From TrEMBL, chains A, B:
This is FCD domain-containing protein. The keyword Membrane does not apply. Residues 11-83 form the HTH gntR-type domain. Keywords: DNA-binding, Transcription, Transcription regulation. InterPro entries: GntR_C, TF_FadR/GntR_C, Tscrpt_reg_HTH_GntR, WH-like_DNA-bd_sf, WH_DNA-bd_sf. It comes from the Bacteria. SMART domains: FCD, HTH_GNTR. Transmembrane segments: none annotated. SUPFAM superfamilies: GntR ligand-binding domain-like, Winged helix' DNA-binding domain. The keyword Transcription applies.
Length: 251, 251
């Protein structure tokens, strides 16, 4: 009788549904492109209410594993996809705002991921990836480019190079980690005293980065992208940084 | 009249609720530890049905931003937390199963993240982090440790070193990236012909890794952890790898 009492785990219906669908994905029985049965058919098969089923489907939509079928009514059946980028971006953005990580943590993670991306891209990037990066660079150099457009193109340039490394996971993480501090980056760009000079300086580095990658100079590209990230990222300020960061608010 | 028609974006109610709550988090108005009003109060304030509100709350629970209050009835109001690790692990696990990334992508991402963690931990780890890693190592060396326990302790050892680097984001990513291939790691451990020899070899490397970190030898620790990861991870096989990986099933 000395064994401790364990609390009963209160699984809620939508979690059980979520687990059931996840098991099928993990077993390879549900693949990208497959369609789930319509809600009105699936709910009775699983023995759950349609609202519990819908809660589970919403979660899977939000993490980029399902899309519902717009325009075909609520009973068309969701489709399995693999679209992790937005989901991961949202997750890291919210957790950054809540203080799960600091601005310094984000900076160092970017440096680590992008050093690797640029070094590998220099060895492996396809002509298509490099041409895409070049086209983005041309648009970033247009004289009337605004802050939001510049930032979007800038992000896409870095993500294109990560994709050029051939690593989809690193590319997804690069995009999401950058997305997590997007509001701060926009703030810093908007606060730039001399916008044309700021973009000119950033684009000079982008141009040199692309040249190094095209020339296969991975080590030099890695060093320059670290300098590039630290240079700009170092000017960011997190005014909303929670002051209770060290407290344990997780449980 | 040459402008192209753009499709109308069909925002669904739960997405609007999600955005409303996210805005508050991003603006710093909702912080970790804060409590949302009970569903029956919040739904009419937002002008939405309780089921739409609940769908949004489920999503936020799943990405580790909210916990509901078990044992206090459905009207107690969820609490804001920061618990990204499980959410990120689930997300990467599902997307790995769907073929969003390959086993090779996961291997290279682990090498990049953990080289950085070990190098930084050698300079910054607290005595507490190192003692935790040591205690995990002692448990991994117990003669009757089973496959699942060994793998859990092994993961916790690597995550403890990532936390020792002081970077919460890298630590979260290390944990999630490893979690994404957990079934394959378990399979490989179960298939080990000589279990005591396998654990002895892994633990010899763990012991040496900890020694290097304690001695402040970051560069050597980084090289050894790369060898350690490539050595074991290189034996993993993804039998369920989708053969349509190159197709675009995302849209």
């Amino acid at each position: 009788m000395s064994a401790e009492w364990q609390p009963v785990r209160q699984s809620r219906t939508h979690e059980l549904v979520l687990e059931r669908i996840e098991e099928r994905v993990l077993a390879g029985e549900l693949k990208a492109g497959d369609r789930l049965p319509p809600e009105r058919e699936l709910a009775p098969v699983l023995g759950v209410s349609r609202s519990a089923l819908r809660e589970a489907l919403r979660v899977l939509e939000t993490i980029g594993v399902l899309v519902s079928q717009p325009g075909r009514g609520p009973d068309a059946g969701a489709r399995v996809v693999r679209n992790p980028d937005d989901a991961l971006g949202r997750l890291l953005r919210l957790h950054f705002a809540l203080g799960s990580y600091s601005l310094g943590d984000v900076l160092e993670a970017r440096v680590v991921l992008e050093r690797s991306s640029f070094a590998t891209a220099a060895a492996h990037a396809s002509a298509e990836d490099l041409d895409e990066a070049e086209a983005l660079l041309v648009r970033m150099q247009e004289p009337d480019v605004g802050v939001t457009d510049f930032n979007d193109l800038d992000t896409r340039f870095h993500v294109a190079m990560a994709r050029g490394s051939g690593n989809q996971l690193t590319s997804t993480l690069t995009s999401a980690v950058r997305e997590s501090v997007r509001p701060l980056i926009l703030q810093a760009l908007e606060a730039a005293e001399d916008w044309p000079a700021t973009t000119a300086a950033l684009n000079k580095e982008h141009t040199e980065l692309l040249r190094l990658v095209r020339a296969g100079k991975g080590a030099e590209a890695a060093d320059l992208v670290e300098k590039h990230i630290r240079g700009f990222h170092g000017t960011l300020v997190d005014e909303n940084a929670p002051d209770d960061r060290s407290e344990d608010a997780d449980r």
